[in-house]
Hints:
This protein is α/β, with parallel strands linked by helices. It has one domain. The chain contains 2 helices and 5 strands.
Amino acid sequence: MTDLQCPARAVLLAIDAVTPSWMDRLRIAARFELSADEDVAAFVDATADEFRGEDFVVVAATASLAEALGLHGIRHEPPVAIGVDADGWSILVP
């Protein structure tokens, strides 16, 4: 069953990464910087519920971002924008 709510868009960006030019097209509602011991996947899932239909940025260590993406079957390195809804995570950009 498809989620009837608008998905949230989460931009996963590594610490000290250069901001990709495609982010200029987004209207960022919030930016979060996670510590090394925070669970990126759990944070994104919880935050997506609060930001339905909006864009938010999560900055974390590259390894933490890669682990979170891998948990959702996404084999892509950050920076990446993902759609998050009840159906799971999907790559939106690049």
